[in-house]
Amino acid sequence: MANVTVVDHPLVQHKLTIMRDKGTSTAGFRRLLKEISHLLCYEVTRNLELTTKRIETPLMEMDAPTLEGKKLVFASVLRAGNGLLEGMLDLVPAARVAHIGLYRDHETLEAVEYYFKAPGELDNRLVIVVDPMLATANSAIAAVEKLKERGANNLRFVCLLAAPEGIENFGRAHPDVPVYTAAIDSHLNEKGYIVPGLGDAGDRMYGTK
Ligand code: URA
């Protein structure tokens, strides 16, 4: 079973309800996703290691807290991951970014990589993978596998909605990767949509169909 944190902050839950509503516009959906991603980012980075650096305030010198270690990486699973990525970068503007493109082969049902670009030294960085919908978890599992193949060894996964099936599958494949989500929904339907869910996150974000 995955190690799951449900970010049940009232503001997250309120905004998520508006996002689920099918009457919410594309612009509204995108704005809310960005706002929620700030709150999810706050939670997923809560225990980052700090060190101190010597600075001079207008009054005196002090050893002030500052983030330790190499810049963290946000890894966006294309295309819907970019909706979460934007807000995360608002809070951690110095973060590095990886993009991972995957499609599902209709015959084998395997996730096939069509794009991968990541910063170097993944083994020395915290890598936070972002993808709004943890449905079957096939693409999330494959994305984490690709990152591990390139050396990542300290990962977290952030989504907006998760299905119990996705959490189960992801936890079995990557028990070392904690999951952060705004909600765990009821189930997946026969088409692989999260129920009650919010529909296709990419389509709602970009106004496509
Ligand atoms: N991807 C989506 O965008 N929505 C779902 O419900 C499941 C997967």
Automatic annotation (TrEMBL):
Pinpoint the Phosphoribosyltransferase domain residues: 6-208
Note how many cofactor molecules are bound and how. Binds 1 Mg(2+) ion per subunit. The magnesium is bound as Mg-PRPP.
Q: Where does 5-phospho-alpha-D-ribose 1-diphosphate bind?
A: 79, 104, 131-139, 200
Q: What keywords sit in the KW lines?
A: Allosteric enzyme, Glycosyltransferase, GTP-binding, Magnesium, Nucleotide-binding, Transferase
Mind telling me which SUPFAM superfamilies this protein's record contains?
PRTase-like
Q: What does this protein do?
A: Catalyzes the conversion of uracil and 5-phospho-alpha-D-ribose 1-diphosphate (PRPP) to UMP and diphosphate.
Question: What's the protein name?
Answer: Uracil phosphoribosyltransferase
Q: Which gene encodes it?
A: upp
